[in-house]
Design a protein that fits this description.
YojJ-like (1, extended, 7 strands, 63% helix, seven-stranded mixed sheet
Length: 304
C-alpha cells in the first residue's frame, strides 16, 4: 500500500500534465529559446562580466528583502527603477550586434532560394580575393577587405568611393598599392563585386585584443563585432593573412586555406557540399593515380 502523500503527489502531477495545452508547450519552447540565446549572448561577449554584476545586485536585493534590511532595500529598489534604461545604455553595442544578426539569420532562408544563381559570381570573387591576398602577403602590402553578407553596410560605403567593379586580383592589388589614393581605407565587396574602396571602419574597443595588433586588425575585429561580415586583413609588417568573423580573429592563412574559409562563409550550403564532393573525388583520383604510377615503377624495376 502506497503512502497517502505519495498518491496525492502523483495525482497532482497527472492533473498538471493533463492540463497542459499546445500553447503551454509553445510558451515553454519560446522561453527556452530566449534563455538559450541570452546565455549565448552573454557567454560570447564582454557583457558576461557586466551580467555577473547585475546578478549580484539582484541577489543583494533578494537578501535585503529577506533580512528586512530597509536601507539597503530602499537603495536597490530605486536603482532598479532606472535599471532597465541603464542596461540598455551599457549593452547598446552588443544588443545592436545581436539584433542585426538575428535579422540577417531570419532572412537567410528566404534569400537562399536565389542564391544558386549567384554562386558562380561569389565563387569567382572568393578566388580573386584569395589570389590577391596571397600576392599581397608575399609583397607585405597591407590590405583590409570586407565581404558583406546579410547585414548591409551602406553607412560605411558612404565614407569611401564607389567603384562597383568586377573582382580581379590585379584590381584589388592596385587598390592597396601603397601609392594609390584609396589604399588606406577598407575595400567593401557586395554581391560578389568590388563595390567601394577607401571606407572607414569602426575600431574594436575590446580590451582583450592582443596589443601587438595594429589599426587594420582592430578595424577588422570591430567590423565583425557589429555585423556578420567576413573581414580579411593582410599585415603590412609581417605579411600574415588573417580573417575576422563575429569578433574573433584567425591568423596564418595561405591562398588555399583562405579560399576554403571564404567559401565556407560566402557560398550557399549546397555549393559547399558540391565542393566537398569534388575535393573527395580529386583526392581519390590522385590516390589512384599514385597507386598506378607505383605499380608501373615496380614493373619497370622488375624488368630491369
Amino acid at each position: 500500500m502506497l503512502p497517502t502523500w505519495l498518491t496525492d503527489t502523483a495525482e497532482s502531477v497527472l492533473r498538471t500534465i493533463k492540463a497542459i495545452t499546445f500553447f503551454d508547450v509553445l510558451d515553454i519552447l519560446g522561453v527556452t529559446f530566449v534563455l538559450y540565446y541570452a546565455y549565448k549572448f552573454i557567454r560570447d561577449r564582454r557583457a558576461g562580466k557586466l551580467a555577473v554584476g547585475v546578478v549580484l545586485i539582484i541577489a543583494f536585493l533578494l537578501l535585503s528583502n529577506l533580512l528586512n534590511m530597509h536601507a539597503m532595500l530602499f537603495i536597490l529598489q530605486n536603482f532598479f527603477q532606472v535599471g532597465l534604461i541603464t542596461l540598455v545604455v551599457v549593452f547598446q553595442p552588443e544588443l545592436r550586434s545581436v539584433l542585426e544578426k538575428m535579422g540577417g539569420e531570419s532572412l537567410r532562408g528566404i534569400r537562399s532560394i536565389g542564391e544558386s544563381k549567384e554562386a558562380a559570381n561569389l565563387r569567382a570573387m572568393t578566388e580573386s580575393v584569395s589570389a590577391a591576398a596571397a600576392d599581397m602577403s608575399e609583397s607585405k602590402t597591407g590590405a583590409l577587405i570586407v565581404l558583406e553578407r546579410s547585414t548591409k553596410l551602406g553607412d560605411l560605403i558612404l565614407t569611401g568611393t564607389v567603384i562597383n567593379a568586377d573582382p580581379t586580383p590585379f584590381l584589388i592589388k592596385n587598390i592597396f598599392f601603397n601609392k594609390a589614393p584609396l589604399h588606406d581605407g577598407a575595400l567593401i565587396v557586395r554581391d560578389g563585386r568590388l563595390y567601394a574602396a577607401g571606407c572607414l571602419l569602426p575600431l574594436s574597443t575590446n580590451p582583450d585584443i592582443v596589443k601587438d595588433l595594429g589599426t587594420r586588425h582592430r578595424a577588422a575585429i570591430g567590423m565583425s563585432e557589429n555585423s556578420d561580415a567576413v573581414v580579411i586583413v593582410v599585415s603590412e609588417e609581417t605579411g600574415l593573412i588573417s580573417v575576422a568573423y563575429e569578433g574573433k580573429l584567425k591568423r596564418g592563412f595561405d591562398r588555399a586555406t583562405l579560399l576554403d574559409e571564404l567559401n565556407r562563409y560566402m557560398l550557399p550550403k549546397e555549393e559547399r557540399l558540391v565542393d566537398k564532393a569534388r575535393s573527395r573525388l580529386t583526392r581519390s583520383q590522385s590516390s589512384a593515380e599514385r597507386s598506378r604510377n607505383g605499380k608501373k615503377e615496380d614493373r619497370t624495376h622488375g624488368a630491369e
